[in-house]
Amino acid sequence: MEAGSQSPPQVQAPSASRGRLPAWALGAIPLVLIVAALAALLTVGGDTLGERVGPPVEEIAVERTVLSPGEIDLTVRNTGPDPVTVAQMFVNDAYVDYTTSANQVGPNATETFTLNYPWQQDSPYLVTLVSETGATTEHEIPVAVETPTAGGGFYGLMALLGVYVGVIPVALGMLFLPFLRRVREHWIRFFMALTIGLLGFLAVDAYLEGTEIAESGTGAFGGAVLLFVGAGAAYLGLVALDRVLRERGARAREAGASAFQLSLLVAIGIGLHNLGEGLAIGSAYAVGELALGAFLIFGFALHNTTEGLAIVAPLSAHRRPSLARLAMLGLIAGAPAILGALIGAAAYNPEFAALLIGVGIGAIVQVIVQLVPTIRDRAGRALYPASVGGILAGVVVLYVTGLLVTA
Asked: In CATH, which of 2.10.70.10, 2.60.40.10, 1.10.3720.10, 1.10.1040.50 is domain 60-141?
């Protein structure tokens, strides 16, 4: 060591002193105190505030309607903080008798009321529930149709419908792969931009549809907020999936993701969207609000065929994928329509539907984020005349084909 030089001081990590609480205990103590404070507030805190002044808060809504010959079954949920006692029922301003296990509906609880009423097919009805305080809640039945009885034939029909509007159209759209493999690189970027336009339109359309469905529910579980909960969960889940796929050493391309990985993410996003679509189809059929005509099936098929094109676009510039992989991608994108139709027909709930639609939105947004780098030109631009034209073309294609789907 040279004269005058000094060795740098050694910094020692602080050692845990004896008697000092471990880190987990320091985190547990505030948690225990918070739980104790909340428990005290629930048990004895209310007594110190005195009685609440004012009328009870009565908020009830009809969650499900089932029509059978001579009867109307209403599942009523109480979304308010106070119990609600239903005293009378009216249908089109006429008093009707009803049966139920309990007239009183507790907070966030449900009760089923069976109205003895000889309703007529295809007629509109307005059901009015009157509480013991005189508050009224109205529920509209736009067109009275007998609710189908769930059975093997019914669920078989739902599965077949899911195949028609999900699996077959996606498979037909994937037949564009040989064509895409013959076009030049700048056309590939155009079709990738078209894919972004398709997915963007699906996301916006799903948001509007999900908001409408959520508003038709009782709001007991959050209403439209569930759209954002589902979207956030799906987005973060697919980001994690993307990281796992990259860590497994998939062959990289410009965006840092393999062609098959991109197609897989596109298929997952479309599949989650088709899950929500199948849910809407199944639930609408279960309550008799969907006309199952040949033109409707044709409209759904044409609308969803473009989704198959979106799946195979990332594969066009690489070696030909195996038939097994293509079949897997097609099933991932199309088969959820079958599951959605079965769930919607068996146990439809507007807020559950909103959550699933939100999942589809989040998945689509994450896929768009993955696809944007693939449309960059040699100058690194994502937006230029060809890419903008492709995005707009995707929006127009889905808008025009969507006009053929009427429910």
From this structure: 2.60.40.10
